[in-house]
Specification:
Elements lengths: L18 H17 L3 E2 L5 E3 H8 L4 H6 L2 E3 L5 E4 L4 H10 L8 E10 L11 E10 L5 H17 L5 E6 L3 H17 L6 H9 L13 H5 L10 H16 L5 E2 L11 E8 L8 E7 L3 H4 L7 E7 H10 L10 E5 L2 H16 L4 E3 L5 H11 L3 E5 L1 H6 L2 E5 L7 E3 L1 H8 L1
Bound molecules: adenosine-5'-triphosphate and magnesium ion.
The site of adenosine-5'-triphosphate has 19 residues, from strand 6, strand 10, strand 11 and helix 11.
């Protein structure tokens, strides 16, 4: 006997019942992003492993332990993308995308990370990824946050908190790093294994640790905000002013450093109090050095990733529901009516309506299916209708009488 075939742990099916909420959310994103001039692009799910090692930094959770890496048949090391920005930047460099100036782009699709699966954390998950390429900010940084706030509002998502921080420029971080290492070194006994290792390689990442046992220690660590140089301090001040002027509430979170090495200056997260421990629904920031790091010309940029599954958890918690319902469900009885049903279905679709044909069976069972489909109307076809070439319309939602009409009249009626 062979083992039962199942989806891989941490990789979930999106079944038809759940799908309409995905589509509703995806539609809202497209609409709002378009309103701000973002255009869609798509990059491969598989990239050379080196792209992520160079882009994200060797000493990051993702590169050290979360990437799905494999050799293809030629022995080239490939990785399933663990985030989308590096691929976008690679493509922008490869195709000289910014030849005519800065661009706002977005992409969406699956992301892969070998993490411990739990609520809000999966091994295949999905992101919207939004990038403003070639913009110095801070106006575009603020604009992305304002755009996300508009998205939450359009979806009826209440209570999302915006946290911002500045992690400065590399020179600022160097000054901070010395003090941070001294502080953490003094408290080395309180560090977990990962952090002890990172003390020498990438101490800033320690501030990003989710380990509850280390939170107090992290709270007392020297703040990057106290080490910002003039330029990044001015950038941060101006960002906060822009947010205030646009009436967007925010909190400065000094511990917010984000998990990837490519960020500088602005970092931000939107956090929901309604979905438990995995509470960040979108996070991003500025990455002014990434283009150069990946072999491109110096190009300033700012972007964010948004976890679709997590936003859907927020939507579910807020009681937002979605369902794809046809305009009409065609019920038919008898041979002549069956032929007619096919024709009527196509005519209604010509008129732009969504129509589901009953698969036959008793009249009663078809009417039950019509009801369950959520259709607004049942189109009933029997011997009489087939003989007179008229159709009977029965409203399934709300009041209204059953009527027998010519097809054109019926179309007007359904519309
Ligand atoms: P977290 O701190 O929760 O691990 P992150 O900082 O690693 O998040 P990013 O790399 O910034 O996450 O990705 C952007 C967004 O993608 C997150 O804010 C979150 O909404 C979502 N996300 C990240 N990892 C996962 C995952 N394993 N499963 C589902 N969604 C995820
Ligand atoms: Mg993570």
């Amino acid at each position: 006997m062979s083992a039962k075939l199942q989806a891989i742990r941490g990789m979930e099916d999106v079944l038809p019942d759940a799908s309409p909420l995905w589509e509703k959310f995806e539609g809202a994103c497209r609409e709002v992003f378009e309103q701000y001039g973002y255009v869609n692009m798509r990059t491969p799910i598989v990239e050379p492993t080196a792209l992520f090692v160079r882009g994200l930094g060797e000493v990051t959770d993702i590169v050290e332990k979360e990437m799905y890496v494999f050799d293809d048949r030629n022995g080239e090391s490939l990785a399933l993308r663990p985030e989308a920005t590096a691929g976008i930047v690679r493509a922008a460099i490869e195709h000289n995308l910014l030849y005519n100036g800065p661009m706002r782009v977005w992409t969406a699709g699956p992301i892969f990370r070998y993490e411990r699966p739990q609520k809000g954390r999966y091994r295949q998950f999905h992101q919207f990824d939004v990038e403003a390429l070639g913009f110095e900010g801070p106006d575009v940084d603020a604009e992305q946050m304002v755009m996300l706030a508009r998205l939450w509002k359009s979806l009826g998502i209440p209570r999302v908190e915006l946290q911002v921080n500045s992690i400065g420029d590399p020179a600022d971080r160097k000054a901070h790093r010395e003090k941070l290492v001294a502080y953490l070194g003094k408290h080395e006994a309180g560090l977990d294994e990962d952090s002890r290792r990172r003390l020498r390689t990438n101490p800033l990442r320690i501030l990003d640790s989710k380990n509850p046992a280390m939170q107090e220690l992290i709270e007392g660590a020297p703040r990057l905000a106290d080490h910002l140089g003039d330029a990044s301090a001015a950038h941060f001040e101006s960002l906060k002013e822009l947010l205030e002027r646009s009436g967007l509430a925010y909190q400065v979170n000094h511990r917010l450093v984000r998990g990837l090495d490519y960020y500088n200056r602005t970092v931000f997260e939107f956090v929901s109090p309604d979905i438990g421990a995995q509470s960040t629904i979108a996070g991003g920031g500025r990455y002014d050095a990434l283009f150069e790091q990946l072999g491109g010309k110096p190009t300033t940029a700012c972007g964010f990733g948004m976890g679709i599954e997590r936003v859907l958890l927020v939507l579910a918690a807020a009681g937002v529901k979605a369902r794809n319902e046809p305009d009409a469900f065609v019920v038919h009885a008898g041979e002549a009516a069956e032929l007619m049903a096919w024709k009527v279905g196509e005519r209604l679709r010509d008129a732009g309506l969504a129509v589901v044909l009953g698969a036959g069976g008793s009249f009663k069972s078809q009417m039950k299916k019509a009801d369950a489909s959520g259709a607004r109307y049942a189109v009933i076809l029997g011997e009489d209708e087939a003989a007179s070439d008229r159709i009977t319309l029965k409203p399934l939602r709300g009041a209204g009488e059953q009527r027998t009409l010519a097809l054109n009249e019926a179309i007007e009626h359904i519309r």
